[in-house]
Automatic annotation (TrEMBL), chains A, B, C, D:
Protein's job: This reaction introduces a second double bond into the aromatic ring system.
Binding positions (FMN): 125-127, 238-239, 278, 293-297, 319
BP-aspect Gene Ontology terms: amino acid biosynthetic process; aromatic amino acid family biosynthetic process; chorismate biosynthetic process
Name under which the protein is recorded: Chorismate synthase
EC nos: 4.2.3.5
Lineage: Bacteria, Pseudomonadati, Pseudomonadota, Betaproteobacteria, Burkholderiales
Record's keyword annotation contains Amino-acid biosynthesis: yes
Keywords: Amino-acid biosynthesis, Aromatic amino acid biosynthesis, FAD, Flavoprotein, FMN, Lyase, NADP
Subunit and partners: Homotetramer.
Keyword Amino-acid biosynthesis: yes
Residues reported to bind NADP(+): 48, 54
One Gene Ontology molecular-function label: FMN binding
Organism in which the protein naturally occurs: Scleromatobacter humisilvae
An example Gene Ontology CC term for this record: cytosol
Length: 368, 368, 368, 368
């Protein structure tokens, strides 16, 4: 309930505001002995960096990360890893006009009501900029998981506004600014974004993310189910309004004889489960899908009130992503990695490190 | 990460197995001075009780709750409230045939892989029976919230398998075993359930739940967002595969100019937000929708493996709900109440109890 | 801060009041596969049971424990272990006279001020009776630690009032009702207790407790230091007013050249550290000493006030231990075991299960 | 169990190493609206700063704090307050000789055994330098508590090695480098320190700390007792080996008729309780006393082993406090403030903010 710490055993404490001095995080509980440099982290931060295409905010910041502690001679020591990212391109004046009013669909109103005051510069703490430290922390988790469990994460955009993006080729994902696994649809996406930008409006997106090489047995039976922690993590990302695991909402109309993935000695047949049964990982790929709402900071004039309760009209200028989903893929990959990392540590706390002697259905059994 | 404790300040620790001696919970952190009797709790337990219609498991248990501690002369004392429900109608032999195999879509396999052993009687800890203590704990939270904040909770079924249930009349909800807000559709629901039972198959459901009279300002900015905690709570309910807040997945195709709920002196216009902006409650109704997968324990024969990894075929007999969604409504109401209660306490820890002096847009402004 | 849950990974949630229906606890996070029966727990409960000599409260209860969950076919399943102890010999009328007044030195006053109401029967939640569930939980931890790490716990009384009890022979501890490691001093202890009982007064005690066969490397660097968690655990036992680790307060007057335990290939020389350096276990024996204040419920008349603030005089009748230290030994052993267990799980979460390849100074090096 | 986060509701996450890039902390849960500047924090940091007399380490650092987040236009916003202190006077070569050996009485050995590697520069994470961020966080808590509850904190040295320091005059405390409440004894303290420095040895100290203006009712009944949390906090300070509340170890030899503080309409008579009964604050002054062991880094040659287990001799050069107790007073004041702050927030979470209507015995009743 602290509001700024994520995870129980691999704990990430996030701090900062969009236009403050700096943002960053402290990672506590990282296993010792992991080779870690700033470059290992920077590579992930660069994937979500603003200013990389005309479709995202033109805020231009290197988002250079500095490791302040927890690494000695290139290895993690087991003590807290503090990561610092200085803010360098704040233009708070862009936001001056929102000081006394509340953008419809934005946290302006709720922060003000909760605390009685708020930092309005760039959205303050409610800015999506605060996902950068999570991407940085996620990079540490991803490195450990890849080296010690062979677990990897990949995400992509599957829908932009009302444009579906059929999955064609994973290799395409890093080749376009939308993280679209489909080269053919990219021109349509670009056209839509240009159109929205011109109209001063915004749209939503759907993002998919999977984990491969999952250990079996992660997750707690009742609460801290693996899928519950994933839902929590994803709904904690700015603008997310829905989360599905595996078949998700489609499972409502399925029959049990269709939904339940059969088991064979060669592995599971199908993955309606999304890699989780009873809150515990099956060894199949984790499959998660999320809905991201349209950006609330738009140029279109909208009705609102001011701090005295009087009616007013709000238009938002400044630099905004017309679809925050465009940069969301590295973020959701990072969040999923943080959840899995936390559960790997929790599992070995209770059940130990040594693999149980189990029959031949492989954790790495066929996945879809 | 403990797996059995829900909440930070209004903490519920759940214990028990479906066919063990007893199930129950310990509630810690309840404010002192709340008038509380077993009858206050029993009324909610009776709403989710098995054996109440032919469409749910025929297990026949009174689910009578006993308050073991924390109440003195009819008032909560501020110390832990332990609640005990004895199991009285276990027929574990019904499950004998699943001891060495794994039901497709069920937690049998993952429990066994996680712990190296499992209690197979009635699904052990993975049984939906373990939601009963949460309903009991939720009854305590609901009573306090109603008396001290005027907050109330109501849920209903909006879809059963592929049958949509249009919302017509809230007064209908308690009048049919499906919690359907629509008397006309009930015969179709009954026919579908009879058909599935005959076929030895099962189906999923969609449940809606709202909170009315919400305090403004509940939720933490980054993690422990109100909606993130709701998603966590809902995904912790057995068989849930998807969660939406407000417009949910529909927000993907919305424009920002459509999605963002405008503010007027009379309140918000619309509720795409589902009552949460930036993770913090707006005072609008909370609106949550969840997807429940079809029951995995079905009579239809399905491929599986046994504990030695050899292929086998599984059919499940015994008493099962062919749609666990039918009894889910009181459960999701309870879980939502537990989340709100926890956030009320967290909010007054940091921000105090006294309402801030704020302008006239009412917390109880017009809601859709 | 929940107030009723002890531990992070081996979590014990305690409930109940002295004269309520029942007391008990829920243990969450216990490793699966531990052979566990009620007899394993009862043996420790019997060591702290009231009514076993004329020097302790004459309340006569079997304190029979019932395992409600978490054990299947004699093995822990990894899910919560709920333990229930019914109260059977409440005589609340004995306490009637303290309903409206506050015993000096007792929690009567603070409970009333904190909550605005209190359960006065037998001290309610503030009774030392609530240590029984901790002894029960400790029995589970002790069994696992002995079997999996070879760690054992033993405590004794080293002072009763102003009578020092020189350590002579560990074998004597279970042979007298004081847990005194010295047969010769027992008659003096008995005489002192008879004298106090006659005088309607009470006295304090000092208890020592050690852990043998300690793993090296338990404890966290800054907070959750092993010794900090021990101090927290011990100060959580009723009536404890002081805690020392190793040389304790004597270290104030030591020189560094005397205090710091030298290392040799055969192990540490001396144990001023008490088995902890920098918050982390050295592998030496843990050495802890605690001060227990005299019982506040005495027959001697004392000045107090009533609930309206008027002066009054209080004398306490009913059944009380004239020295709560007499039954404290099994309690502090249990608390120490719970701390060590929690840290064993925490250590393997972060650092894994496999022993590091380290040079010959043995964890089990010579201890004093 | 995370090891680097202190507190549940006013949470302080500490990071850094003695000779790393920086040290600091993140405070989460601070109430909004507190006027806060770097000067408010710096004043406390300056009280524990090294290099201020010849009796403490000659490391010369300004320990200038930078507020990175959580404050807007001079007021706390309710979001995380990140505090950064750059390290500026590291001379790690001073420590080169301890890389492969273990100082007796120091955490060198345990860190290495726990993690398999360690940052040896200046003691890395085990350095007392890591108390600086806690002093900074404590300054924030102290400011809020003073303004909102009228609670203040003061500590002093009561013993240095074997020299007792009788309490004479609180006004003397800030006037000498020992925080001694007694001008007459200062020359003896100085002589002793000069002698130890010359001898290449060190000594321990005893520190007292009290809180005045305490709210009544802080603390949880069973665990998270106020005194248990104080013991935890104090034992978490480097080199602390013992903690007493109120009469502490002296209570062992007291009778109940002497120990229990009587109540009168004018308040409590005496304070053997140290301000806590049953784990809950009485409104009397909190009274805490701690034992600090002699510094382990001394020039006197001592037996040890190297990393291969071979015998060796260790002498420590570099800059060290010959008595870490000299600078401990501001630290223990800060730790006590952090505990009280956390409990104030916990109390109002459960019991609300509004004072209960209680009879005339004042929270601020006569104190000794």
């Amino acid at each position: 309930m602290s509001g700024s710490t994520f995870g129980e055993l691999f704990r990430v404490t996030n701090f900062g505001e969009s236009h403050g001095v700096a943002i960053g995080c402290v990672i506590d509980g990282c296993p010792p002995g992991l080779a870690l440099s700033e470059a290992d982290i920077q590579i992930e931060l660069d994937r979500r960096r603003p200013g990389t295409s005309r479709h995202v905010t033109q805020r231009n910041e290197p988002d250079a990360v500095e490791i302040l502690s927890g690494v000695y001679e290139g290895l993690t020591t087991g003590t807290p890893i503090a990561l610092l990212i200085r803010n360098t391109d704040q233009r708070s004046k862009d936001y001056g006009n929102i000081l006394d009013t509340f953008r419809p669909g934005h946290a302006d109103y709720t922060y003000w009501r909760k605390y009685g005051l708020r930092d309005p510069r760039g959205g303050g703490r409610s800015s999506a900029r605060l996902t950068a430290p999570m991407v940085a922390a996620g990079a540490v988790a991803r490195k450990w998981l890849k080296e010690h469990r062979g677990t990897t994460f990949v995400g992509w955009m599957s829908q932009l506004g009302d444009i579906a993006i059929p999955f064609v080729d994973e290799a395409q994902i890093p080749l376009n600014p939308f993280f679209a696994p489909n080269a053919d649809v990219v021109p349509a996406l670009e056209a839509r974004m240009d159109e929205l930008r011109k109209a001063g409006d915004s749209c939503g997106a759907r993002i998919e993310v999977i984990a491969r090489g999952m250990p079996v047995g992660l997750g707690q039976p009742l609460f801290d189910k693996l899928d519950a922690d994933i839902a929590y993590a994803m709904m904690g990302v700015n603008a997310v309004k829905g989360v599905e695991i595996g078949a998700g909402f489609a499972s409502v109309a399925q029959h049990g004889s269709e939904h339940g993935d059969e088991l064979t000695p060669a592995g599971f047949v199908g993955n309606n489960a999304g890699g989780v049964l009873g809150g515990i990982s099956t060894g199949q790929d984790l499959r998660v899908s999320i809905a991201i709402k349209p950006t609330s900071s738009i140029r279109t004039p909208r009705r609102s009130i001011d701090r005295t309760g009087q009616p007013t009209v709000v238009e938002t200028f400044g630099r905004h992503d017309p679809c925050v989903g465009i940069r969301a893929t590295p973020i959701v990959e990072a969040m999923l990695a943080l959840v899995v990392m936390d559960h790997v540590l929790a599992h070995r706390a209770q059940c130990g490190d040594v693999a149980l002697d189990m029959p031949p259905i492989a954790a790495s059994a066929p996945r879809d």
